[in-house]
Amino acid sequence: FISSAKKTTITLNLNGGNCDTNEIVTHYNENYELPIPSRPGYSFSGWYYEDNKYESGISKFTDDILLTAKWNKYDYYISYDLGLDNVTNDNPQNFDYETETFIINELSKEGYTFLGWSIDGNSDLYKTVTIEKNTTKNIELKANWKANEYIVTLIPGNGIIEYNTISVIFGDSYDLGVPSIEYYTLNGWYNGDDKFYTTGVWG
To answer: Which run of H or E residues covers position 199?
Structure first.
């Protein structure tokens, strides 16, 4: 026979967590309630003595006991909108609360200038983004770009052309024009051995 007056103490090892108490006094055969602690970056898995999990209920303790909180790390994710097709992104995709501070680097793509990352829909742009240790949220990043502008110098040989330079935008249509020279037709515009059509899309 165990008297209901039998008193035992549950000591709580918070194991890095936070709680209003770290000790509970119970009486045999009476209700007791275990608190739910919190810990940034972790979900609470339960109170354990060795491999045995304990929950609130009717006390059957006959001796004092030490219960330890167990935790599971949250995984946080970085979602990327790269803004353009065929962009290589070697930046990390996820992290957790204990991940050391790291940097999201800028991107590159031929014909475009990387303006920066916008974070979680905000308009401010950052060439790199620092993810601090102990961050506790998912992050949305969008890559912002500007198509490069190029100045093309035209040398018409013995021909006559309306303009000697034109501005072209990468990915946009262009028209280099056709110089006029009596008794000749244009074979093409050349940069070294590279031939450019009179019209087309630059890049």
So the answer is: strand 199-201
